[in-house]
Amino acid sequence: MKRVILHIDMDAFFAQVEQVKNPALRGKPIIVGGDAGHRGVVATCSYEARKYGIHSAMSSAEARRRCPHAIFVGGNLTNYVYISAQIQDIMNDYTPIVEPTSIDEAYLDITESYHLYGTPEKLAQDLKDNIKKRLQLTCTVGIAENKLLAKTASDMNKPDGLNTLWMNELEEKFFPMEIRKLRGVGPQTEKALKRLGINTLRDLKDYPEKKLSQNFGLHGEHLSKMAHGLSDTPVHSFEEMEDEKSMSHEHTLYEDTSDLIFLKSLMITLTDKVVARLKKAQFLAKTVRLKIRYSDFSTITREVTLNSMTDDVNTIYKTALTLLPVDDVVSNKVRLVGVGVTKLHEAVETPQIELFEESSISKKGKSGDVVEDIRDKFGKFSIVRASSLPYRWEH
Ligand SMILES: [Mg+2]
User: Fold this and answer.
1) Beta strands 334-346; 283-294: pairing state
2) Cα-Cα end-to-end distance for the chain
3) What is the extent of the structural domain holding 388?
4) pLDDT higher than threshold 90 for residue 75
5) Last residue of some domain: 135, 162, 189?
6) Catalytic residue among 105, 112, 221, 240
7) Which residue has the higher pLDDT, 231 or 75?
8) Of 85, 180, 192, 231, which residue is least crowded by CB atoms under 10 Å?
9) Which of 283, 249, 5, 313 shows the shortest CA–CA distance to 144?
10) Within a domain: residue 238?
11) Are 253 and 351 members of one domain?
12) C-alpha of residue 9 to centroid of ligand 1, in Å
């Protein structure tokens, strides 16, 4: 059966919330986050400010240069989280399958419920009206048969938009798009694709998949599938994620970064912590999950299921590494990294090993591999004992 997925994206969320709270700010260029704290970057800005070329993650100094009369607002994360929860409540009135992907974005699977409203478009309009009526906030909704196209549809039509991207509209709306607009195509991939003469999604779709795979490995296959508008990732409801037995560790960076060495080292530390907990609880994991939050607060979670259950730090780290979207990480700075394991089962027998202690590295060849790999690639100072890393990085 054809699925119907919505992607809801609140328009300039933090700025809108501030404008609702203080009507004197309405219709004015508002910058949230800029002046507050040590970070000195724009968390988000109103559409009035965007007209001056200001965008999320820009330095406040640059934003002030572009629009000297912009109003800087410190922002109140607690309030945003509170309102985000209210939006989720409203979305839950339309379907139980709601997957929030950030504080102001979510996917909804309305396959089973849209007929109650007549059409998917009517359900989406009702949802938009409801959010507007109850919270005075506008959002943009994309409607399609899968998550990839729903997100693309909402990106096309901001703010206060409602846009469909059905399979029969791809010819007109999707295939003419430039390749860099496709999720997962960062500057590196874009350059490489252009070298092959691929400029639009149509070029990418028509390019032989075999040749793409030769150039990009597994990513090539994925790119080809996306260029055809295909994606079968299900919408995971929040409850479903909560119920699942899982263990994870996350770390919010002191400063956003695109430094791969740093991020990989951080992933080791996080894996180390996860594995320590796994072993302590005597569990084995079947699935490895990586979470990345970018400086604009957009968040991705990727996971892969292993062939067999494990509590081996080497296996879990290397698996997490295959999930790292290197292109995106380099082109968008990262704010938070999380490594986790799910699908846990009790282990029959788990030897207690302290990971990354000198003794275990020298005695246990396998644990040492990861360390040596990284040292080979990135130099001997790229990895030190896990427990000392946060100190080294954050001061
Ligand atoms: Mg938004």
Assistant:
1) antiparallel
2) 54
3) 244-394
4) no
5) 162
6) 105
7) 231
8) 85
9) 5
10) no
11) yes
12) 5
Closest by CA to 150, choosing from 4, 303, 11, is 4
**SS3 label, residue 388:** helix
CATH assignment at residue 3: 3.30.70.270
CA of 300 to the centre of ligand 1 (A): 15
Question: Is 184 a domain residue?
Answer: yes
| Listed range (4-13, 74-83, 92-101, 288-297) with the worst mean pLDDT | 74-83
Q: How far is CA 210 from the centre of its chain?
A: 28
Q: What is the DSSP letter of 40?
A: -
Cα–Cα distance for residue pair 202/204, rounded to 1 Å: 5
Asked whether residue 251 falls in the same domain as residue 219, the answer is no
Do 389 and 267 have their domain in common?
yes
| Domain shared by 221 and 358, yes or no | no
Q: Cα(14) to centroid of ligand 1, in Å?
A: 9
Question: How many A from CA of 12 to the centre of ligand 1?
Answer: 5
CATH of the domain at 194: 1.10.150.20
**What is the tally of structural domains in the chain?**
3
**Closest by CA position to 105, among listed 137, 139, 76:** 139
* Residue of 239 and 321 predicted with greater confidence: 321
Is residue 53 one of the residues assigned to a domain? yes
Pairing verdict, β 71-73 and 334-346: unpaired
Considering only the C-alpha atoms of the chain, give the largest distance between any 2 of them, rounded to a whole number of Å.
66
| 269 shares its domain with 370 | yes
* 346 in active site: no
Report how far ligand 1's centroid is from the alpha carbon of 102 (Å): 9
Q: DSSP readout, 99-118?
A: EEEETTEEEEE-TTTGGGGS
Distance from the CA of 26 to the center of ligand 1, in angstroms?
Answer: 18
- The CATH number of residue 288's host domain is 3.30.1490.100
Query: What average pLDDT does the segment 324-332 reach?
Result: 87
Q: State in Å: Cα 54 to ligand 1 middle.
A: 15
DSSP string, 177-190: SBGGGSTT--HHHH
pLDDT bracket for residue 239 (50, 70, 90): low
Q: pLDDT tens digit string along 6-64? A: 999 999 999 999 999 999 999 999 998 766 444 578 888 999 999 999 988 788 888 98
Backbone angles phi, psi at 248, to 5 degrees: -150, 160
